[in-house]
Amino acid sequence: MKKIELLSPAKNLSNAICAINYGADAVYIGANAFGARANASNNLSDISKLVDYAHKFNVKVYVTLNTILNNDEIKKVQDLINNLYDAKIDAIIFQDMGLFELDLPPIKLFASTQCNNINLEKVKFLEQCGVSRIILARELSLKQIENICRNTNCEIETFIHGALCVSYSGQCYLSAFNGKRSANRGNCAQVCRKKYSLINENGEIISKDKYLLSLKDLNASDYIQKLINVGVTSFKIEGRLKDENYVKNVVSFYRQKIDSIINKTQRPSYGIINLDFVPDLNKTFNRGYCSYFLSGKRENISNIYTPKSLGEEIGTVLSVCDNYFTIDNNILNNGDGICFYDENKNLTGTNINQIVENKVYPNNMDKIKKGTFIYRNFDIAFEKILKHSKVKRKIPCEITVEKVDNDYEFKVRDECFCYSLTIKNKFEKAKNIYQGMQAIINQLSKSSDYGFFVKFVFINLYEIPFIPISKLNEIRRMLFEGFIKYRLSKYNYETKQIKKTNHPYLKKDISYKENVFNDYAEKFYLRHGVKNIEKAFETNFDINKKYELMRTKYCILHALNICKKQTKDTKNYFLIDDKNKKYELQFDCKNCEMSILNTN
């Protein structure tokens, strides 16, 4: 059976350890540079500490180097990858094809979704390059994913939760065009979460000052069984800038969800996780959820009224007085944060000061009316539960104490490994046999600090020795530290040497959208038969030239119920941002895609 991996984001070492403790089979984390989240970088020392902690549980560590690199940077990346290989990370998540021209150590490469992995042809090309895993574009349907899984030997990874980029990943240049903050360089300004107005060629305003490019968040929990069935082996949670409470809640939810579906032997990591709360995705930051295009159909995937978190639905306001309101489902608490849409569909919010029976006293009653629907975007009780939750993953094990010749042997065994420690001390016979046995059992069972849970201590001795507590503590430390080192030495560290290939690329001529930002990437494409190469948009884009700044499977007209297919509309449409910049919209109705272009 294939192993099914739950993959969690990690902003830093603390978040990564949290993700492991709450059920992740793998974590992805940024190094000190060159990751697609510039504000989530980590030094090599922390990554090395993470590797040791993770590998103890057979959890894998992937490092993100998924930006495009200039000529100076790619030389530094060579040294960084060598250092990461020495630290025994499990794979590099990359975007820049220039990496294939470097003298890399035998480390696995995973093709980031930033590589625009949108079809089988691209996946097969990367597979022939030696890539071990493909992280698919979020826009693919279940049917498309199945076709890819059945026709490649690469591992396939899909996103299952978190924020959605409105653009095909790796194909968004709107932020770079606006303020030279490139998404492909790890500095996206999230201009898609800002207000825009939609006008037609006649200047008529179709929609004014709305968040016309802001999508809901992804929640594919209902599709996990189907995705496993078609061949997906890694399920990725988005959110490398999120806090520990997000990690605890979301990882725990998907751990339980996946465990309810798979066979125990399909779980790749070790250890038991005893949760002290009930996970609830509605209580974590979300803009409303959707399953994006997994169904193959178009659902309501945008929220044009706000890019902020709505949280969970609570209920409808029944009555309003001067300083309180009543609601049809009062599960609110003192200190909660609530939000709602006012009569102009603007999202506003306030805090709850006091609850008295069915009366809710908010900090601000302004704009709350009878019939207003209330959301809770901050559940104070749940956040406190998460904050104080101290779950630690533990590996069940057994300890045996016996005598071998004249020495004492302490042996610890889990489901996979066994380690022995020999103590040559000659201990006196215990005067009280029961107390002597209990001292050994009690002290050796104190193993949680090492990540183990001792189920049994078997004492196979004819004569029970008296071992001082201090000595038992020393033996416990030596036993578990030795066991950890032994287990790490037996870790199945999978490597793969990349060999240069020259199989033809999908096209002979490539545009700026292939993101060729350095000489190494150019050499790569030339070696694979490309004849004409346009440099990356970030190299030196011409402000007077028309570019496709974004291609998206989301359509504003469809979201506004004025789909061109249905209305037979032939007019041209434009977006106007808050700085009065104008962008042209183009619609590929055959493929249900929309493009955003700058206007000259």
The poorly predicted ranges are none
CATH homologous superfamily descriptor of the largest domain: Aldolase class I
Q: Report the mean per-residue pLDDT as an integer.
A: 95
Morphology: globular
Question: How much helicity do the residues have?
Answer: 10-25%
Q: If strands are numbered along the chain, what order do they take across the biggest sheet?
A: 1-2-3-4-5-6-7-11
Please state roughly what percent of the residues sit in beta strands, choosing from under 5%, 5-15%, 15-25%, 25-35%, 35-45% or over 45%.
25-35%
Using the 3D structure, state the CATH architecture of the largest domain. Answer: Alpha-Beta Barrel
Q: In CATH, what is the class of the largest domain?
A: Alpha Beta
Query: Quick one: how many beta strands?
Result: 28
Structural class: alpha/beta
Q: What would you report as the Rg, rounded to the nearest angstrom?
A: 28 Å
Report a brief summary of the structure.
This protein is of the alpha/beta class and 600 residues long. 25% of the residues lie in helices and 25% in strands.
Keywords:
alpha/beta, TIM Barrel, eight-stranded parallel β-barrel, six-stranded antiparallel beta sheet, 15 helices
